[in-house]
């Protein structure tokens, strides 16, 4: 349940070959910046361009697909790739190290930092996504966020029942499998892993591992989808 092969269809991300080099998704977080620079250098510049900042300076480590839509009030910091037909809406704040796939939505006042968003991911309204990987067609409802640092600042552990997996990292957000739905105003605590086709009720506080195909109502009510 915790492995990359259990969570993601790698046909839907430019990071496929990179991710195949790891067992667990959080192992990939450390190298996202370098990955983006490598992928960006090989992109076809008839299909992508380097945007300019508000002072007219060319952002050499930011690549935006020509058919993507980036609103003027959005802030893009490299390294960053914005895929084909993706929409980056008003006041989105991309802090860097963001690999955003094709047909994604990065919405109003959404903040991204050190993330991989597979194709068709939607983070459309007031979301914070940091040190996280979001699988194909995953969706975070309005106001839902990933918390990526523990309050005691200790290294993040991933807890799957009695099993505890050490990540060795101070910052780990959430790993969302393909087609995950996160309800509005939910908090995904550090080290949360949501299996494929999981649905999370609105205003939930989630930690640990939710198995594939389940509905998370609260920590005591996690039901298999019928």
Question: What report would you give on this structure?
Answer:
There is one protein chain. This protein has 3 helices and 25 strands. The chain is mostly beta strands and 226 residues long.
Mean pLDDT: 97
The fraction of residues in strands falls at: 25-35%
> What is the 3D shape?
globular
Low-confidence stretches: none
Compute the number of strand runs.
Answer: 25
Q: Report the radius of gyration as a whole number of Å.
A: 17 Å
Distance between the termini: 19 Å
Major sheet: 11 strands, mixed
Percent of residues in helices comes to under 10%
Count of DSSP-assigned helices: 3
Secondary-structure element order, N to C: HHHEEEEEEEEEEEEEEEEEEEEEEEEE
SS-derived structural category? mainly beta
List keywords for this structure.
8% helix; eleven-stranded mixed beta sheet; 3 helices; five-stranded mixed beta sheet; 35% strand; 226 residues; globular; mainly beta
Structure summarized in a few sentences:
The protein is mainly β and 226 residues long. It has helices at 4-7, 16-19, 32-41; strands spanning 48-49, 62-65, 69-70, 75-76, 80-82, 87-88, 93-94, 98-100, 105-108, 111-117, 122-125, 128-134, 139-140, 145-146, 157-160, 163-166, 174-176, 181-182, 187-188, 192-194, 199-200, 205-206, 209-210, 214-218, 221-224. The strands form five sheets. Strands 1, 2, 4, 5, 7, 8, 10, 12, 17, 20 and 23 form an eleven-stranded mixed beta sheet that branches. Strands 13-18-21-24-25 form a five-stranded mixed beta sheet, with no helix packed on it.
